[in-house]
Amino acid sequence: MTIYDYEVTTITGEREKLEKYRGHVLLIVNTATKCGFAPQFSGLEKLHQTYRDQGLAVLGFPSSQFMNQELEDNASIEEACKLNHGVTFPLFAKIDVNGTDAHPLYKHLTQEAPGVLGSKAIKWNFTKFLVDREGKVVKRFAPADTPEKIEEHIKKLLQA
């Protein structure tokens, strides 16, 4: 399977295939609105605004697997992201990113780009995966890697 074969649910409950993003550079992030890294939403939004016309798509996947730092329902998550962080990039329904109930997309991402020492597990909120225009997962970034810190990697893929 490629990244384009996966189906996801939008924050408003609609099903969509990632095929929609074929030809884009993707930055896929597991998010949590109550996390200490939540200020990164602003940096992610800035990347979205700056590079979307060049083919970048930032995709946010809320998860509550790390100290229950996400709101309970998708409507509340969407509202908090818009009101508190000005998010306009696509958000998806809350999912699990680890374990037996992990979303198949995240099983694929962690298989293609393991973490430190080959670990497949997502360690915390705001782990980021960079995917090239052909759908290949090219890099995994740690939660502490800010959007500003990874911007150069994005620019290189956009210019490729």
UniProtKB/TrEMBL annotation:
One of its GO terms (biological process) is cellular response to oxidative stress. It comes from the Bacteria. The active site is at C35. GO terms for molecular function: peroxidase activity. Signal peptide: none annotated. Gene3D superfamilies: Glutaredoxin (3.40.30.10). Pfam families: GSHPx (PF00255). Keywords: Oxidoreductase, Peroxidase. InterPro entries: Glutathione_peroxidase (IPR000889), GPX_AS (IPR029759), Thioredoxin-like_sf (IPR036249). Belongs to the glutathione peroxidase family. This is Glutathione peroxidase. It comes from Paenibacillus ihbetae. The lineage of its organism: Bacteria, Bacillati, Bacillota, Bacilli, Bacillales.
